[in-house]
Structures are given as C-alpha cells and as structure tokens.
Amino acid sequence: MERFDKDTSLSMRKRLIGKSCRLFFSDDPVKIVRARGQYLYDENGKRYLDCISNVQHVGHCNPVVTKAASAQMELLNANTRFLNDNILYYAERLAATLPEKLAVFYFVNSGSEANDLALRLARQYTKHNDVIVLDHAYHGHLTSLIDISPYKFRKLEGQKDWVHVAPLPDTYRGKYREDHPDPGQAYADAVKDLIEEVHKKGCKVAAFFAESLPSVAGQIILPSGYSRKVADHIHAAGGVFVADEVQVGFGRVGSHFWAFQLQGDDFCPDIVTLGKPMGNGHPVACVVTTQEIADAFTATGVEYFNTFGGNPVSCAIGLAVLDVIENDNLRENAASVGGHLLDLLKELQSKHTIIGDVRGVGLFVGVELVMDRAQRTPATEEASELVRRLKEEFVCMSTDGPGENVLKFKPPLCFSVEDAQLVVGKIDRILSDMAAKEQNKKVCEIFTGQMLVLICTLSSCIK
Which of 177, 57, 191, 74 is nearest to 133 (CA)? Predict the structure, then answer.
C-alpha cells in the first residue's frame, strides 16, 4: 500500500474524516507509521516515548498478542451465536481475577457498548430509572452515555431530569480536601443527600455510575472508603453500583488487578464494565455482573446478542493479553515503575512551584499544574505549552481535568524506569526554561515601567 507524505495525509484527512475527530497535537500532528512496546515511530524514523496509550496495555504490537490474533484468524472468526470454546476460556480466566459474586459475562465491542448495556441491566433489575454520576465524568459516546457524562452533556443539550450529578471526590481541588479528617465519608454523604433529593421528587435511583479512578476528571484517586459507603447508600435506595474499569483495569494500578479493589476487600460492585486495555488495541469489551441481575435481564424474554462481541479472535487476543500481564509480571512493573515515577515527580514538585499536586497509583499518574499554589488556579496555558514542548522532545503526553491542566500518565504497562527518568528529566528542563522566560518577562516589564516613570518625570521637569 502506498504511503502518503505527511502533508498529503493531512490534506486527505481534512477532506475525508469528520472534523470533530481530532488528532493529538492537532496544530502539528505526529504521523505514526509503526510502533513497538512503549515507543512510536514517525515517517522519518524518529522515536517517540508514548505516555498516553493506555489502550495498548501490554505494549504496541506485542508479539504474543499479534501471534494469537493471526493464528485464530487463520482458524475461525464466526458469529458469536455459534458455540465456541474461546469465549468460555476467556470468561473463566476473567472470573478468576474478580470477586466470586461477579460471575456472569456479556461480551461487546467497546467500553461505550459495555456502559450502555450496564445501564440497561441496572434499570431492568431495579425497575428504577434515575442515575447518579460524578461531576466531570465520561462514560462513552453513545447517546445514552452522553446523557450520563457531565464532561459531554454540559457542552451539548444539558442535563436530563433523570440524571443527578454528585461532587467529584477530589481531595486536591474539591469541597473536602486533603486536610479533611474523613473525605471519603464526607463525599459519600453528599451522595446520600442527593439520593434524598431524588426521592423528594418522587423518583428512584437505578444506578450509581463511577470510574474506579476518574480519568477525564483529572486522574483522581478516590478517598479511602468512598465507594463502599456510597454502595451502602445506593443499595439502601434500591439501586446498584456500577464500576467503570474501561480505562483503569487489568493491573494498571499494580497492587491489584482491578482499580475498584483499591477501596478494600469488603467492597464489590454490582456491575463492572471493561474495555480499552483488554484487547491491546483490538475492539473488545465486557460487562460483568451478578447472577441475580443477569436473571432479571433474562426474565424480560428479550434476547440479547452481539454479532461480534466475544468472537473467537477477540477472545484469543484477550487471553493473550492476560498471558502477557502474568508472564511478563506487568502488574509488578506497574507498581515499581509507577512508584519510582511518583517519587521523581514529587521531587520536581519541591523544585517547581507550578506543580500543585502529584497523585497516582501504579501507572495511573496525574501532575496538576497551577498558577498559584494557595489559590490552586489552573495553569491551563502552561500545561498546553509543556505538552507541545515535550512533543518536540519526542515524548507524547496529554492533559485532562476540568481546567485541562493535569498532565496524565497512562502508558503501556511495559513502561520502564529509564522511560520514567527520561520524561521527568525533560519535564524538569522545560519547566525550568519556562520559568526563566517568565522571570525575564517580568524583569522587562518592571524595567519598561521604570523607564516610563523616568520619562514622564523628565518631561515634567522640562515643562
């Protein structure tokens, strides 16, 4: 297949692809022609360190995964309504990583499909309609999910009357911060208050949806005990707890296989949705739930099928991903490299006042940039400039959060100590340069002001 030069590719993309489908670094995109592990290569052979591709969970073009995909494609890829063992092997392997009560699987193609199905399951089981979500949440691009994603619906048609938004449990920027004696309880009580408001309107809550680690909201680490206490309130109201693991599951947190497990052994969601990392770039996703909820869904008498969800190739790939996570000790790598990365970033925090907060677990890390540490004013433009400069240094990074001021690290789990040291060194150098330029700018402004005063004074004397 002919490879176009970069300018031709850009021209054709502008003509053929919807303009709302934005590229990374849209002002000057990187044209990637191949990748391996945690590295991307452009058309000129330049290598970029990939800090953002959480989809390629075990590394770009992992040979174990590509071999499994190719072998299964050679053998069979059929409609999922034919009996085949791959889906059974895969469900059994996933079940072994989950709490015992999460035992029924529905395979789909994307995280959006998974969350849409989770919403259907919750409503059918509870016979309720309303949904509580976290502020700034994002759960997918289907219409049903835009409706429960404040990150999206606030830019579109606004909030539906059956959607209720709970405060984001952000202990850095939220109402209850790091100095609160029990922020988990305080934020959970806010959900309880919201449930009471819903009941006063004569409505009932079907589900509480939350990412186990809110990502688009700014790489948020939920306070201890929060999910368990919210689940208690939701269950008392007759609803179910849905944990969205689409971005953060499969060992990214290091210490556990699933991010919801960070909330303690006594917490288990009623429904869990899986996606992005499970296929390492191949479109496969899943909903896992309890037998009781699955039985209620079956009782409708309406068949559920997904033509491609859980097909033999997808499941072969999913099994290979699990093999690589286990055989290459990628959970352990996420824990050790992620811990080292956090330490390096916290050292930078003590050096650069623009770094307001460093937070994370495993290879899910956020660096929040602020104009003023006391006021915590988002340094949006500075974060954008840092990302642009890093790209010039052959590091792919992006920002998130309501103020677009949080640098987010969600690299492939094969990310190394050397990679962490490389990117932190570049961030240090760029921030030092930005600070020096800002200082020079202030000096020039002061000098210019003093000169104006002197000129005005001399003019007055002459008159």
Answer: 191
Phi and psi angles of residue 50, each rounded to the nearest 5 degrees, phi first: -95, 110
Kindly give the interhelix angle for 417-462 and 330-351, rounded to the nearest 10 degrees. 20
CA distance to 66, 112, 117, 278, per residue, from 142 (Å): 29, 6, 11, 20
Angstrom distance (rounded) from CA 378 to CA 211: 23
Phi–psi pair at 142, nearest 5 degrees: -70, 155
Side-chain-facing half-sphere of 269: CA atoms under 13 Å: 29
Strand 398-400 relative to strand 406-409, pairing: antiparallel
Contacts of 55 (CB under 8 A, 6+ apart): 276, 277, 280, 281
Handedness of CA 272, 239, 136, 158 (dihedral sign): positive
Interatomic CA distance for residues 285 and 283, integer angstroms: 7
Place of tokens 């990214």: 252
- The kind and range of the H/E element at 107 are strand 104-108
390 backbone φψ class: left, alpha, beta (φ>0; ψ -120 to 50) = alpha
The reported pTM is: 0.93
Strands 47-50 and 39-42: antiparallel
Average pLDDT taken over every residue of the chain: 95
pLDDT in tens, 383-410: 999 999 999 999 999 999 999 999 999 9
